[in-house]
Amino acid sequence: MKKFRFSMQTALELRERGVEAAEWALRAVQEEWNVNQLQQQALVEEVRAAEAAAAEGEIIPADLLALDRFRAAAHRRRARMAQEASAISRRLAERRAAWQAAERDRTLLVRLKEKSLARWQVEHEKEQQQLAEEAYLSRWAR
Question: Could you report the per-residue pLDDT of 92-108, keeping only the tens digit for each?
């Protein structure tokens, strides 16, 4: 009786490593996205805090001018962050597609392995049955 051996085991292991690498790449880009979103939110909060601080105290024209400049700088910075977010979003979609392709390839090989194992089990059971029949007949013949 021969032991079960999947002929494409090496390919399956390579596919599994590929899925793992794709997952890590996807996580890295997702982390970039999360950091970008947090930075944008922090910038919005900074502007709100500055506006609230300006509204609470005495209004000095120099403060209003500084607040206006701060708003303009924050707006430009947020626009750059939005562009970065757009680029990150594209990379995220690419990484997700790569991960899905790697997962699909791995799943295909896993299914092939399962089918191969099922065929082997059927053949193994047939062989076991034949051996049992031969053993019974050899005892009966004595």
Answer: 999 999 999 999 999 99
User: Is 140 among the domain residues?
Assistant: no
How far apart CA 8 and CA 41 sit, in angstroms, is 49
Task: Provide the domain limits for residue 19.
Answer: 9-112
Report the alpha-carbon distance of residue 116 to residue 7 in Å, rounded.
Answer: 9
In a 3-state reduction of DSSP, which class is residue 1?
coil
> CA 80, CA 23: separation in Å to the nearest integer?
28
Average pLDDT of the chain? Answer: 92
Query: Which of 88, 91, 90 shows the shortest CA–CA distance to 22?
Result: 91
Give the tens place of pLDDT for each residue, 124-139: 999 999 988 888 888 8
DSSP state of 4: P
Our count of domains for the chain comes to: 1
- 84 part of a folded domain: yes
Concatenating the DSSP letter of every residue in 51-109 gives HHHHHHS---HHHHHHHHHHHHHHHHHHHHHHHHHHHHHHHHHHHHHHHHHHHHHHHHH
pLDDT score, position 100: 97
